[in-house]
Specification:
Residues 16-29, 327-332, 342-352 and 364-374 have low confidence and may be disordered. The chain has helices spanning 2-6, 8-12, 18-24, 33-48, 51-67, 73-91, 96-110, 117-133, 137-150, 158-175, 179-197, 205-217, 221-236, 246-259, 263-281, 289-302, 305-323, 331-359, 365-373. Helix 9 (137-150) packs antiparallel against helix 10. It has a domain at 285-374. The longest helix is centred in the last third of the chain and has 29 residues, at 331-359. The chain is an all-alpha fold and 374 residues long. It has 19 helices and no strands. The protein starts with a helix and ends with a helix.
């Protein structure tokens, strides 16, 4: 989940120009300089990861622009976009409210006589990521195909954005179960990047890493490891430019290694993923919860129950601090709860079997069935 949410950051890049574009426009009666200044603050908050402030300021701008008799359409679309983006990032989950803001921004663009085409396409691209996260694969495909249609060769700057949208297309097609189209879309992204940036550029590795993830999910583990290893080395050279895609690639590599039985290297890979999150978001970031859960799972399966418990307790502490005690909106709450109980039951089962053996008791079938069913 964390990877899907972080990927929205790239869809946002072309949108950051909206306040500057509005400032350069000719003065009109409906122009609202205060709202535009607020939107410029939202653009700044993106780089600073100040999502709570972005949400509040975008809400103010949206209310002000919506109340205007003739609102600035570019600014209104931008306010909807920032509100949706901040809602996703603040909650670390996706929902109908954020989706509605992206849809409203797209409707504003669609109703304009001369819309900012690239910002419109970027909005659809961001909405696609959200729909993927909501497991609405078919809807995601429809949105991303609309975004691609806007990136016509005649639109200045469309080629660069089109590479991003082909990447999103690959994710959307995979979410919809259309693997062959996903592979073709990712290859289109790769070709554009190679042509524009050169084969050794770190961003060329992004679609390659996603291809590795597809192979991993198809059970072609050795091929997946080979692709992901190379892609990760290339992504690591990109620094801040590719840091948002690096955790996802590391997570996929760790999963492939785990399925191949290389538990030790799998854990080492997740530790690298943790280090990336700490570098980017800080040591107390809630984005550390999923990799901590993964490490705990691997330690548990490896037989290190004490180590797993320590890791799960850390993950649970972070989940309660970042999401609220008892919050089960993400897979983390359920997973940590499940493995805590499973760990306890396993210890109980081991103890009771030893106890029954010592006493010569043989009527323990119900206990064993209870554990296996759990």
């Amino acid at each position: 989940m964390a990877r899907r949410l972080l990927a929205l950051s790239l869809a946002l890049l072309s949108f950051l120009a909206l306040p500057r574009q509005s400032a350069a426009a000719t003065a009109r009666p409906e122009r609202d300089s205060l709202a535009v200044a607020w939107l410029a603050d939202c653009a700044r908050f993106v780089g600073e990861r100040r999502y709570a402030e972005m949400d509040s300021v975008a809400a103010l701008a949206l209310a002000r622009l919506s109340a205007a008799e003739r609102p600035d359409s570019n600014a209104l679309a931008s306010a909807h976009f920032y509100r949706g983006y901040s809602r996703v990032q603040r909650a670390m989950v996706s929902g109908p409210e954020a989706s509605g803001h992206f849809a409203d921004a797209a409707r504003v663009f669609a109703g304009m006589a001369r819309p900012d085409t690239l910002s419109w396409a970027s909005t659809l691209d961001a909405h696609t990521w959200l729909l993927i996260n909501l497991a609405r694969g078919d809807s995601a495909v429809r949105q991303v195909e609309r975004a691609r249609a806007l990136c016509r060769p005649s639109v200045r700057g469309a080629d660069s954005l089109l590479a991003e949208i082909w990447y999103t297309s690959g994710r959307a097609y995979r979410a919809a179960g259309r693997t062959e189209l996903a592979i073709a879309a990712l290859d289109s992204c790769r070709q554009i990047r190679v042509r524009r940036l050169g084969a050794d550029h770190p961003r060329v590795a992004e679609p390659i890493a996603e291809l590795g993830a597809i192979l991993m999910r198809a059970g072609r583990l050795e091929e997946a490891v080979q692709l992901l290893d190379g892609a990760i080395r290339q992504l690591e050279r990109g620094g801040a430019e590719t840091i948002n895609r690096l955790p996802g690639a590391l997570g996929d590599l760790a999963t492939a290694l785990f399925r191949l039985g290389d538990v030790a290297r799998s854990v080492e890979t997740i530790e690298k993923q943790l280090a990336v999150y700490v570098t980017r978001d800080g040591a107390e970031s809630r984005y550390l919860i999923p990799p901590l859960y993964s490490i705990g799972l691997r330690l548990y399966e490896f037989g290190d129950h004490a180590g797993a418990r320590t890791v799960f307790e850390d993950a649970l502490r972070r989940a309660e601090a970042g999401l609220g005690a008892g919050n089960d909106r993400t897979e983390i709450g359920g997973a940590v709860n499940y493995f805590f109980h499973r760990h306890t039951l396993k210890l109980q089962s081991d103890f009771r079997q030893l106890e029954d053996k010592g006493r010569g008791v043989k009527a323990h079938e119900l206990r064993v069935q209870t554990y296996v069913a759990f």
